[in-house]
Amino acid sequence: MSVWHISGGRRLSGSLAVQGAKNAVLPIMAASVLAPGQIELLNVPELRDVDTTVRILRTLGCGVEREGDAVNIDSRGLARSEIPHSLMRELRSSVIFLGALLARCGRARLSMPGGCELGPRPIDLHLMALRALGARIDERGGDLVCTTPEGLHGADIALPTPSVGATENAMLCACAAEGETVITNAAREPEITELQSFLRKLGAEVSGAGSATVTVRGGPLSARRVGHRIMPDRIVSATYLAACAAAGGDVELRGVCPEHFSTVLRSLSECGCDIMSKGARVRLRSDGNLTAPMPVITGPYPGFPTDAQPLMLAACLRAKGTSVFVENVFQNRFRFTEELLRLGARIHTEGRVAVVTGVQALHGAPAVATDLRGGAALIIAALSAEGRTELLDSGHVARGYERFDENLRALGADISRT
Ligand code: EPZ
Fold first, then answer.
1. Domain that residue 127 falls in
2. pTM
């Protein structure tokens, strides 16, 4: 259990290099078991979710060495295709190993990933896609026992909703499925395009990522040495900019892809922030007195990212007027707002809609982080509140943010973590 100690009311200023993307590196680490090879990943962030994935790879028999921001994976020694429940519990997205293990070993056993604070996290679309490719999946006492009795074969997979994880799982499994697989209504997130570029380095024939139709021509993948640099994290980028918008200041981010979070930049600019982006740099200036933006309506990429909704909501707590948020991706992604009320925020939630009435000032108060992005939102609110906030956090924020307190302190915030 960590406790974040924040004294708000200080402006943020400075320049920051943004970490590698959590939601790109996790599927790429799973993909590293597709073929026996030596993989060097660079710009890998130091996150709890990455540490858990390293433990999963080692449990499967891979060699994994971490040196600074590099992670070297030797998947030639892969000897098991089962992931223990204890590791599955820690990381929902470990279900992504299903497709990779079926492709490499023809079988896999892992437990149903837990739900989480965002509401139920079903994996029915993952299972539908893998079954279409020839996998036989039995649910036995909370475990998924997967085999490929007749091998894997190409298939047409139509996703009812553009699920990021189901798209990734289907792509990985299809790499070993004889023939052509066409995934329609595929997720279009930048992390999918990043996964495609990694799979191509492994020798896989994948195309269409970033569009709604991804095509994979399956076949044997030969062993090879592969290097890949992880793309910057668009949600972490949005987090630091939302913090500067809320607290006021002048912050520049380096090594980012502004086009990956252009919807967030648009909303921040509607709030009155002064935003300049040039190449891989984005600079935001704010006097901390914002105005309510146009309604923030989340949706699959290229819509407003659901992961940035809590961050934008926190930035709008003192914005003049009424800010409206519609959460279309997850059923229960407003739980963190109950904690924001303790800091004096005025928020009314009704199902998928949250209405924020701007208040003159927020005041520091004890609060609890309910999930990863909700925890980041509470820190943003505390930075723009008067007085001290103590935020209890059972490790949520560290799952997605590398050196968050250190980076915010370097930008002038009065924040520490015990
Ligand atoms: C990925 O989760 C991200 N996680 C999430 O980021 C992100 O919020 C989400 O995509 C949406 O962009 C990783 O990449 C590790 P989905 P994922 O499958 O793949 C429903 C963060 O904060 N659904 O696109 O689990 C599901 O319930 C995390 O970094 C099914 O119904 O998201 C949800 O309502 C949070 N059946 C919607 O689809 C399925 O089989 C979108 O989920 C799968 C999903």
1. 22-229
2. 0.97
